[in-house]
Design goal:
Length: 376
């Protein structure tokens, strides 16, 4: 019978909001809870994850699991020894660094980590020596962690392939694709959806370097020169907000590019868009892509990481090379010019979502994995 143990999820996200990896963690934890597992979440004190995990009814243990490595290892080992969980499941690079060794020293039977980002991400983010150095460092850490970790859960096949090339044994790798609850259930359509014949193009996410929003803004400027009936919207916030707003003004589209800030209803925001755009320079499966697909919205996304597992080029959207604003603009214009194409691609994305990316399927795969490991 699935669901007779105690599992602790460990995460290193320190921000006041929650990111895609944390939403993923909470979905899996909720599924474990429903299946009868005792669940606990170890997270950075004061983080958005702490708040959301408490609201979801999980036991919460605030520990500075970020870059305070020696202190975090000591506190985690003491916590694991006191609670004696059957499984420790880490999420995040630093959370894995501190929890894997602490769990083994505390006698935890099974240790897992979910790899949410491409191991090669530093090469995409930091061209040159810095990117090469960080990639080599992370590769070394992954290989060493493999001695203490029973399974690396890979959210896309591309992550598994990179870990194999780094030197992690295939027997330790498990692909479980991301899944989300049906975004079409009870969606509240955003007010921007009521503006006549205007075509709304937008995105939702953190304004940070991996998201590549400067390329979306550059593409929007190209589109704006061709069409006056298109408006652009970014929903979110982050350290690059001021720089992105300044870029939009500099390119002359400040009056047509809205920066909406954080929203308590991101699904409603996506529902208010006619075309959804992802401009990431590195990514795995962007959860907002799945949300857009579930809402029958066509997606234009960069062909990085595992995004091509969700977006089939020419079927439910278009894939473009990273940093190619000209090609992104071309694809946006194609969809702006063809309402019929938008109407065919949207439902195709919905079908693809239902076949592969539901929360129920993702949770069931995790429960099966936990059962296999605890019974081994």
């Amino acid at each position: 019978m699935i669901g007779r143990g105690h599992i602790l999820f460990v995460d290193d996200y320190r921000h006041a909001t929650i990111g895609g990896g944390e939403r993923h963690l909470l979905r899996v934890a909720k599924g474990c809870q429903r299946a009868g597992w005792r669940t606990g979440v170890v997270c950075v004190p004061g983080s958005g994850l702490e708040k959301n995990a408490r609201a979801a009814g999980h036991e919460v243990w605030p520990v500075p699991t970020g870059r305070h490595l020696p202190r975090a290892r000591r506190e985690l080992r003491a916590l694991f020894e006191r609670l004696s969980p059957d499984i420790v499941h880490a999420h995040g690079f630093y959370a894995t660094m501190v929890s894997a060794s602490a769990a083994r020293r505390a006698g935890v039977a099974r240790v897992l980590t979910t790899v949410h980002t491409m191991p090669s991400a530093p090469l995409d983010l930091y061209p040159g020596v810095r990117g090469w150095f960080e990639f080599r460092l992370r590769s070394t850490v992954f290989r060493r962690q493999a001695r203490s970790i029973d399974r690396f859960v890979c959210v896309v096949p591309a992550v598994r392939d990179e870990l194999l090339r780094i030197g992690v044994a295939e027997s330790k790798l498990e692909v479980i694709e991301n899944g989300i609850s049906d975004p079409a259930c009870g969606v509240r359509r955003s007010p921007v959806a009521e503006r006549g014949e205007i075509v709304r193009v937008g995105s939702v996410g953190r304004f940070e370097q991996p998201k590549g929003y400067e390329h979306f803004i550059a593409a929007a400027a190209i589109v704006a020169r061709e069409r006056s009936d298109v408006e652009f919207r970014l929903v979110g916030d982050g350290t690059l907000r001021a720089a992105l707003m300044a870029q939009a003004e500099r390119l002359g589209i400040g009056d047509r590019f809205e920066f909406a800030g954080w929203s308590d209803d991101p699904i409603g925001e996506i529902a208010g868009m006619d075309i959804y755009v992802v401009s990431s320079v590195t990514d795995t499966t962007n959860l907002t892509v799945l949300e857009a697909m579930g809402l029958s919205r066509p997606v234009i996304a960069t062909d990085v990481g595992g995004i091509s597992d969700a977006v089939a080029d020419g079927v439910n959207g278009y894939l473009v090379p990273s940093r190619r604003e000209d090609l992104m603009a071309l694809r946006i214009l194609e969809l702006v010019d063809s309402p019929a194409l938008r109407k065919s691609m949207g439902p195709a994305g919905r079908r693809r979502f239902e076949e592969r990316f539901t929360e129920a399927h993702m949770v069931e795969r995790h429960l099966e994995l936990y059962e296999r490991l605890t019974m081994a």
